[in-house]
Design goal:
Elements: H1 22-72, H2 78-90, H3 94-97, H4 100-136, H5 140-177, H6 192-197, H7 220-241, H8 253-325, E1 332-337, E2 340-348, H9 372-385, H10 393-405, H11 414-417, H12 421-427, H13 430-437, H14 440-449
Antiparallel strand pairs: 1-2
Helix pairs in contact: 1-4, 1-5, 1-8, 2-4, 4-8, 5-7, 5-8, 7-8, 9-10
Length: 452
């Protein structure tokens, strides 16, 4: 027997795809432009805020270093102690400096001065260590790290708003073309900023784990904050991507395309979320690295400062002990300038005695007195008058008168030129002649040998 063929099932008509109306296209375009404009403006504000916070932290580190350096260079009482000792030392009589007991006492006073200077230095070091501790333990950095994390949470908020708005626009577009009615209500925006500030239970994450080999300088509080930021990102991702739309249950080509478009948006958001977290972690690690460098720099400055100060004190005491051994005064002013010992050669501690005036190159001769050259010339002149060396008073008077009357001879003093022969004869008395020809010290010896 023959069997009848089965009746063929009727084919389903293809799903209807409506053209996009011009008004709907304009509305969707305006919505898209509004979403993108708002997203760009808000992200620019948040990125600018992050840059400002980062720059403030760097400036704070720089100003802290400068402030500590100025603090280390503050004057103290060491210079007063050194000046007081120098004044007492220089006031000591020079005759006492060579005594052994005086030297021993001065060395003891120098050692006592060194102990006093060291005590002042130790007190200054303790205060400087307290200042360093206050700088390092300041909460400025932690507070601004928290502000940076909040800014990145704000970026996540903008990513959520953009993602939700984009999904709504895609849904409206495909639903309209699929002939479905577009929903009048949109899903309520997820406020992650408020959840973050309120420590909502849904975003309580565990601290992030850091590889020990990376030598990260993140603190425990930083790890907790970054862990909380990561929890925010994970919560938002799971919340948004877990919303399954009604379109996935409808067999329509446009719904398939809608699902594919949503998948693309999900992938893009995951990548952006990853970059947001990595950037936040990088900035926090950067400022913490700078903070550690600041702490190390302050330690080096503190150590070098007081090491140099010890050397300066040692140099000052060595200078003092050297002066004690040489039995000399401390001629130049000794200066302990912060961590440097200076012998100020432009500043004297006492007035020097005036130097002995140099001898004059010109012979000073009084009135009626003959200079050495005149005595030599007169001797030659008289030898011409008497070659034997014996001469009478009349001939000597005449010779002197002629020598005085000849212009340009300058054998005799100027006062003798206008004298008459009678006064020249009076000068020829032995004692008066010697008084005019020789200085008084010679006359004292001469008078003591002449008979009265």
């Amino acid at each position: 027997p023959s069997t009848a063929p089965a009746a063929a099932e009727p084919e389903k008509p293809p799903p209807e795809v409506l053209p996009l109306h011009e008004d709907v296209a304009r509305l969707l375009l305006e919505q898209w432009r509004g979403v993108e404009t708002t997203f760009e403006l808000e992200m620019k504000k948040l990125l600018r805020r992050v840059r400002v916070e980062h720059r403030e932290m760097i400036n704070h580190i720089s100003s802290s270093r400068s402030h500590f350096l100025e603090y280390l260079h503050r004057p103290d009482s060491k210079q007063k102690l050194l000046h007081a000792f120098q004044a007492r030392y220089n006031s000591l009589d020079n005759e006492l400096r060579g005594l052994p007991q005086t030297k021993s006492e001065l060395h003891e006073q120098a050692d006592l001065l060194q102990d006093e200077l060291w005590a002042v230095s130790d007190a200054s070091r303790e205060k400087a260590e307290e200042e360093r501790t206050s700088i390092v333990s300041d909460s400025f950095m932690s507070d601004h790290v928290q502000l940076i994390i909040v800014s990145f949470v704000g970026m996540m908020q903008q990513e959520i708003l953009r993602f939700q708005a984009t999904r709504a626009i895609l849904r409206d577009y495909f639903w309209y073309r699929a002939g479905r009615n577009m929903p009048e209500e949109t899903p309520e925006a997820l406020n992650v900023i408020q959840m973050f500030m309120d420590d909502a239970p849904d975003i309580q994450g565990s601290p992030i784990e850091v590889d020990e080999e990376s030598n990260s300088k993140l603190t425990d509080s930083d790890k907790e904050r970054l862990g909380k930021l990561k929890a925010v990102i994970d919560y938002c991702t799971n919340f948004l991507f877990g919303q399954q739309g009604e379109e996935e249950e409808i067999e329509h080509p446009l719904m398939v395309k809608l699902a594919q478009a949503n998948k693309i948006e999900e992938k893009l958001m995951r990548e952006r979320n990853k970059r947001v977290f990595e950037r936040a972690k990088f900035l926090v690690e950067d400022v913490r690295e700078r903070e550690v460098q600041l702490s190390q720099s302050l330690d080096r400055m503190l150590g070098n400062r007081f090491k140099s100060e010890m050397e300066a004190i040692k140099g000052a005491i060595t200078e003092i002990k050297l002066a004690i051994e040489k039995e000399q005064r401390l001629f130049h002013n000794l200066v302990l300038k912060v961590s440097d010992f200076i012998r100020d050669e432009d500043s004297l501690t006492y007035a020097l005695p005036p130097p002995v005036p140099p001898l004059s190159v010109l012979e000073e001769v009084g009135p009626y007195r003959l200079s050495s050259w005149q005595l030599l010339s007169l001797s030659s002149w008289l030898k011409r008058a008497s070659s034997t060396g014996v001469i009478t008073v009349e001939i000597l008077t005449d010779a002197l008168h002629k020598a005085a009357s000849i212009a340009g001879m300058k054998i005799l003093p100027v006062e003798w030129i206008s004298l008459p022969p009678s006064k020249l004869r009076a000068f020829l008395k032995v004692r008066l002649l010697l008084l005019h020809l020789f200085p008084p010290p010679f006359l004292l010896l001469l008078y003591s040998s002449l008979p009265l």
